[in-house]
Design goal:
This protein has helices spanning 10-18, 26-36, 51-63, 82-96, 114-119, 131-139, 156-161, 165-172, 190-199, 213-216, 231-241, 254-266, 280-291, 293-296, 328-335, 356-366, and strands spanning 41-44, 75-78, 105-108, 126-129, 150-153, 180-185, 204-207, 219-225, 247-250, 271-274, 300-303, 318-321, 345-351, 372-373. The chain has two domains: 3-207, Rossmann fold (3-Layer(aba) Sandwich); 213-373, Rossmann fold. The longest helix has 15 residues, at 82-96. Helix content is 39%, strand content 16%. The chain has 16 helices and 14 strands. The strands form two sheets. The protein has a seven-stranded parallel sheet, sandwiched between helices. It has 380 residues and is of the alpha/beta class. The N and C termini lie far apart (51 Å).
Length: 380
């Protein structure tokens, strides 16, 4: 289905077309008309399904022509991580510029000084925020929520699993009772259901099933049995022998991220690292260098599950699981960074003997058997 039949304005249709987006995804087809009608929405959709455009465009269209009072925002988008805040804000800013009278959007998050964010709050219409930093700004009287007409909770399940329930409840208590509420989540667990019942009034419920076999086929999965001692050597061999570019590598700890990143650079493979112990400025710059690898020469980005949902690169070709994640759901989020928007991708998993049982569990849960090869031979 094309975007033309969803009720979006001509300016948005032109912008979507110029961006190369012709067909709406399933979540966009169902969420855009409902949001434009002013209804509450409960949407469950897997990572990479296009939900940001699914709520951002109708939200902006409904706000078109309005102007927020000083420090009284009109729309609030709550997200769990800084990376996702920047990603969502980028989408909102891009499409806001397509409006005849563009709205002002801004992202606020921790890890950086709060003072510049406070000073830029004047005239903001749409605020994308992480819970902790938003409360700091509210407690400093840097903004008011009394005139918020639309609330979006994006990645609600992750927000709750990260321990933000108390902060979210604090924020909800300061919002107007009469508003449009949009709840987006990758899963519908008990806590998300409780939030839905508490916040939404006669919602339109949208359930987009996790990847179909056809969509999973876009992700070519490979796995190799390897000893812990030879993991690094195998990783470097795969990258160099296949001349891989834009490789996203997942590790289970910040220590391992730094170790793998250092080894790659020492061996002539330009790499950057992102994890929770790096400053926000460093994380932002390293991600930008990775995205612009053709200019910067950065071939790899090594990270923890911090970025399993927070990174958005349209044509990311390769994901490598240097270590297995804790859960099958995290595995799905990881490999879901590639094979998106009908573009093929490759997900490679390195498995030690100690990880063999967990690897079988993951395959069973995702419903896909991945042929696991023995360590290949190569000249070192």
């Amino acid at each position: 289905m094309t975007f033309d039949s969803l009720g979006l304005s001509a300016s948005f249709l032109a912008k979507l077309s110029s961006s190369g987006l012709q067909s709406a995804t399933a979540i966009q087809q169902k969420s855009i008309p409902a949001i434009l009608e002013g209804k509450d929405v409960m949407a469950v959709a897997p990572t990479g399904s296009g939900k940001t455009i699914g709520y951002a465009l109708p939200l902006l269209q409904r706000l078109e022509g309005t102007k927020s009072k000083n420090r009284f925002i009109s729309a609030l988008i709550l997200v769990p991580t800084r990376e996702l805040a920047m990603q969502v804000n980028e989408v909102v800013v891009t499409y806001s510029k397509a409006l005849p009278s563009p709205l002002i959007a801004m992202a606020v998050y921790g890890g950086v000084s709060i003072n510049p964010q406070m000073k830029k709050m004047n005239g903001v219409d749409v605020l994308v925020a992480t819970p902790g930093r938003l409360i700091e700004l509210l407690d400093s009287n840097a903004l008011q929520l009394a005139e918020v007409s639309t609330l979006v909770l994006d990645e609600a399940d992750k927000m709750l699993s990260m321990g933000f329930k108390e902060e979210v409840d604090n924020i909800l208590s300061r919002l107007p009772i009469k508003r449009q509420t949009l709840l987006f989540s990758a899963t519908l667990d008990k806590e998300v259901k409780t939030m839905q019942e508490k916040l939404l009034e006669n919602p339109v419920t949208i359930i987009i099933e996790r990847e179909t076999p056809e969509e999973l086929d876009l992700i070519k999965q490979e796995a190799f049995r390897v000893t812990q001692e030879k993991k690094g050597l195998l990783l470097r061999h795969l990258i160099t022998s296949r001349d891989l570019r834009q490789v996203l590598i997942f590790c289970s700890s910040t220590y391992q991220v730094e170790h793998v990143n250092d080894k790659l650079n020492i061996n002539g493979i330009t790499s950057k690292a992102i994890h929770s112990k790096k400053s926000q400025g460093a994380r932002k710059q390293n991600l930008a260098d990775f995205k612009n690898g053709a200019e910067t020469g950065v071939r790899c980005l090594v990270t923890t599950d911090l970025l399993a949902r927070g990174i958005d690169i349209a044509f990311l070709p390769t994901v490598i699981n240097y270590e297995l994640p804790r859960s099958p759901l995290d595995f799905t989020h990881r490999i879901g960074r590639t094979g998106r928007a009908e573009n093929p991708g490759t997900a490679i998993t390195l498995v030690t003997a100690d990880e063999a049982h967990h690897w079988r569990v993951i395959q069973k849960k995702i419903g896909k058997k991945v042929w696991t090869e023995d360590l290949p031979e190569w000249n070192s």
